Amino acid sequence: MHLSICDMIGVEHIRIFESGSKGENSREVDVSALPAGTYLLQVQAGAQKFRQKFVKN
């Protein structure tokens, strides 16, 4: 699994590579060090991709 969090101008702030197992997996990511703003969370596991925009206050 590859997880990244980028700001809206494309700067990557967090990058995590981890092996996962088949089925449901969960992962907590500490974003407390990020400044307030809008970010894009991207997760890729094999051929599956997920993207979600979020706002940190």
Characterization of the model:
By secondary structure, this protein is an all-beta fold. It has one domain. 0% of the residues lie in helices and 53% in strands. It has strands at 2-7, 12-17, 37-45, 48-56. Strands 2-1-3-4 form a 4-stranded antiparallel beta sheet, with no helix packed on it. A hairpin with a 4-residue loop joins strand 1 and strand 2 (12-17). It is elongated. The chain starts with a strand and ends with a strand.
Annotation keywords:
about 0% helix, single chain, mainly beta
Summarize the structure.
The chain has 57 residues and is mainly beta.
Indicate the topology:
Elements: E1 2-7, E2 12-17, E3 37-45, E4 48-56
Q: Which strands sit side by side, in order, in the main sheet? A: 2-1-3-4
Give the N-terminus to C-terminus distance in angstroms. Answer: 27 Å
Structural class: mainly beta
Estimate the strand proportion: over 45%
Number of strands: 4
Order of H and E elements = EEEE
What is the number of helices? 0
Envelope shape: elongated
Number of domains: 1
Largest sheet: 4 strands, antiparallel
Question: Please, what is the average pLDDT?
Answer: 93
Q: Please tell me how large the radius of gyration is.
A: 12 Å
What percent of residues adopt helix (DSSP H or I)?
Answer: under 10%
| Low-pLDDT sequence parts | none
